[in-house]
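Design request, tokens follow.
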């Protein structure tokens, strides 16, 4: 059983709880009804609707199990103190392409397109523990990239 902490902000925790609640109270009964209706159509061996509903149920139950495990292992992070980069920090870095702003979050909340990167990503790993003015090297697939920490919020 995986007991690795799942780092979440308070907002991320609420979002996962809301998703789990919807899956259990809305989607699970809807899929069960689909399976019941498909069973009424007769021979299950050639019933595409039944197979599709069972496949949806399998995916749904897998997602519910994942969310339950994440919530069981959730560690809510507080906003960092601003002295050094940690989970919850909003960091402005400067590199060859100019300034970029990221918020360091746990992997369950990561959304790079929205500026939220995981503490386990190459950039997140490189930034963790560093202070304003530090130069960090990110080991990217294309080779090392240097960034300077401009601001930590």
């Amino acid at each position: 059983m995986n007991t690795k902490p799942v780092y979440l902000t308070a907002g991320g925790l609420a979002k996962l709880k809301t998703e789990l609640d919807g899956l259990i109270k809305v989607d699970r009964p809807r899929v069960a009804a689909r399976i019941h209706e498909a069973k009424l159509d007769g021979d299950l061996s050639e019933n595409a609707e039944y197979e599709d509903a069972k496949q949806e149920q399998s995916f749904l139950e897998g997602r519910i199990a994942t969310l339950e495990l994440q919530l069981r292992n959730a560690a809510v992070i507080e906003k960092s103190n601003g002295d050094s980069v940690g989970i919850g920090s909003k960091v402005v870095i400067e590199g060859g392409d100019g300034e970029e702003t990221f918020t360091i979050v746990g992997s369950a909340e990561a959304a790079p397109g929205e500026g939220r990167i995981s503490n386990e990503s190459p950039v997140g790993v490189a930034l963790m523990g560093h202070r304003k003015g530090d130069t960090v090297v990110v080991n990217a697939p294309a080779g090392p990239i240097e960034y300077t920490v401009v601001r930590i919020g």
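Comment from the thread starter after seeing the answer: thanks! The first strand starts at residue 6 and ends at 8.
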